[in-house]
Amino acid sequence: MELLPRSPGEFGSARYWDRFFRQRGQRPFEWYGTFPELCPVLHKYVRPRDKVLVVGCGNSELSEQMYDMGMCEDIVNIDISDAVIRQMQERSGSKRPKMSYLLMDMLQMDFPDSYFQVVLDKGTLDAILTDEEDATLAKVDKMFAEISRVLQVGGRYLCVSLAQAHVLKKAVEYFSQEGWVVRVHQVASSGDKQQFVLPVFVYVMTKFRKIPGSASQILEICPEEQDKPMRVESTEQLVAAVKDRQHYALLCSQLSKTPCGEQVSLDLCDKESGRPRYTLHVVDSPSVKPSRDNRFAIFIIPQGRETEWLFGTEEGRRQLATSAGFGRLVTVALHREQHYEGMAGIQAELSGKVMELAPPGLPARQQVPFLSVGGDIGVRTVQHCDTSPLSGEYVVEDVKGDGTCYFRRLIFLRNRNVVQSEARLLASVPLPGQKKRRKDKKKTSPAEPPTAIDKSYLCCEHHKAMVAGLCLLGGPNPLPGTPLAMLVVGLGGGSLPLFIHDYFSQAHVAVVEIDPSMLEVATCWFGFSQGDRMQVHISDGLDYVAKLAAEGTVLQSIPAQYDAIMFDVDSKDVTVGMSCPPPAFVEKPFLQKVKTILKPEGVFVLNLVCRDIQLKDSVLATLRQVFPLLYTRRIEGEVNEILFCQPSPEGRRDSTELGARARALEQDLRKPGLPWDSSYTLADMLQAVKIL
Q1: CA distance 193 to 250
Q2: Higher-confidence residue: 552 or 296?
Q3: CA-to-CA dists, residue 119 to 125, 153, 637, 653, angstroms
Q4: Above 80 in pLDDT, residue 557?
Q5: Which keywords describe this protein according to UniProt (predicted)?
Q6: Whether 171 and 317 share a structural domain
Q7: Are 208 and 279 part of one and the same domain?
Q8: Of 206, 416, 543, 676, which residue is 20 to 30 A from 653 by alpha carbon distance?
Q9: What's 53's domain CATH number?
Q10: What is the pTM of this model?
Q11: Which residue has the higher pLDDT, 439 or 341?
């Protein structure tokens, strides 16, 4: 039996609907939105004494259920189908004496002006507004004008809709321009995703007298999980907010039916500010054999650790899910702008929402475990935040790592999942002769995080590899006491030039940084300082190198050429598949200038972060054209690759010689008065170096 129209235009035809209801018979037809789902919203806007008009009533049970539940009795139902009106008159008749069914076209109603307090439309607007042709829009304008005419001031037009973008946009624009208040409610789902996937919305348009010359409009949205409406500024924002909820519903439906091949990512936003509060990743592990207790779990990533490989990369999260032994794991990252009330508070806040992401076959009322590292949500303290004209918004924050270690990090918020600079913090120790304060046994408080910077520790693996690359310098052994002229392009928090300055006592380090804000950050928050052997130049690295190459001289008291040049500079252009360095830094003419200011036995060290394989191959090919000897060191678990470039092929060394030089250099660097972190060695950092 064919019930669908041959064309969308037939939805407005009385002939089509007569045929539809005759073929369907007595069975009620509900487009979407059952009475139990709609009841919480209708209760807010329909009062028992209201006179209610239902347009395009069909044979829906909605009016009957409203009547029987005592919500309202004075209900007038109209429809253009004679067949359905006669059917409903017979069905409702004497049972509901105060309710009537009339054959009437809502585009030309017989009711007097301001006759109703409520006009209710369940799917009728969706059925008429099937396209944006002029004839269709004219019909909708006529419908809206008639609804406006029969409604009293203060009356409500309640439209139950699937909120297709063009339908919502038309309704909102029409009534907001008339001076009405527009509010969109998302209807709470019954949970039967097999019946209907898309969420149902109710537009509530409240009639006010139009004030001549007033351009103000009130637009609001009420998500299903909250009663308090959220104000939006424009029709476009309202349509976008609804579209987000529709996409989320489709995603949940898909995840409830089939395992996800690729990891799914989504943000849950704060109700008040609209800013992201949680970032979720849904990870399925096909290798895990499902049982009742290992189908689904939630993993809360401790604050400040979302950038770690295990939590911040697809491969890391996949490994985490497999090792945790769950078929589906949802990882939850916490945002620095938000406040959280501990693990219990997060669990209470997320429990209902994450269950919408449950895998297929999860038993009803199944207890879902919340997991974390160490059972807490970690510690994150934002020490400083500001905006730089060059780098954008940034924050300096202290976070707790594994165990009792604390770290200070610089984060550029345009790429909030990447740590720009990092330093380990030292526990405060009493000065010589200073007594420790006795603790009050009666008072217990959590240990305060340290604040002093541990300058001996390189947090970033690529910085360790860059320092190890100094083993490639010419001569029998580059002792720390040997005079070295060093150029570092890119300051960040300053940990790399600081380490070189402190451990290579004869090194003169020139640092080039384009952003003056970073010098202030490094000085105030990362323990960086300038002196006789450390000078920072606020300049574009491209211009600085070009000027040196042209002049053939460097700073006073420093040789005309550098022993080592290091590039650790990020790209501000996120559209390029290479985030470090900017593409101009690896173009052949500029690399030739770098070679010009590098000593023949020197080394050029480049931190390369490139996800575009073709672009990376092109960069390597260009480097080989300029530098005959090229070594590479991949950083495990990261995209970073450290390239060591030398002007002469005669400096080629095998891994055995490199290891011996690294051990000798490190032995010299472990001098009295300067602590050396034992968790890594220079030889280890050079172990995986390959010659390209």
Answers
A1: 10
A2: 296
A3: 12, 12, 61, 85
A4: no
A5: Methyltransferase, Multifunctional enzyme, Transferase
A6: no
A7: no
A8: 676
A9: 3.40.50.150
A10: 0.68
A11: 341
Do 227 and 265 lie in one domain? The reply is no
> Mean pLDDT, to the nearest integer, of 640-658?
76
Please check whether residues 209 and 299 belong to one and the same domain. no
Q: What are phi and psi of 470, to 5 degrees?
A: -65, -15
Confidence category of residue 228, pLDDT binned at 50, 70, 90: confident
Q: How confident is the model at residue 662 (pLDDT cuts 50, 70, 90)?
A: low
Q: Are 209 and 334 in the same domain?
A: no
If asked whether residues 231 and 272 sit together in one domain, one would say no
Clarify whether residues 234 and 283 are in a common domain: no
How crowded is residue 68: how many other Cβ atoms within 10 Å of its Cβ? 13
**Which has more pLDDT, 430 or 618?**
618
Chain length of the chain: 692
| Residue-wise burial string across 124-145, b where 16 or more C-beta atoms lie within 10 A, e elsewhere | bbbbbbbeeeeebeebbeebbe
Examine residue 429 and state whether it is found in any structural domain, yes or no. Answer: no
Q: In this structure, is residue 306 part of a structural domain? A: yes
CATH of residue 352's domain is: 3.40.50
Query: What's the domain range around 488?
Result: 458-691
Q: Is the pLDDT of residue 436 over 50?
A: no
Which region, left, alpha or beta, applies to residue 364 given φ > 0 means left and ψ of -120 to 50 means alpha?
beta
pLDDT reported for residue 440: 45
How far apart CA 450 and CA 428 sit, in angstroms, is 6
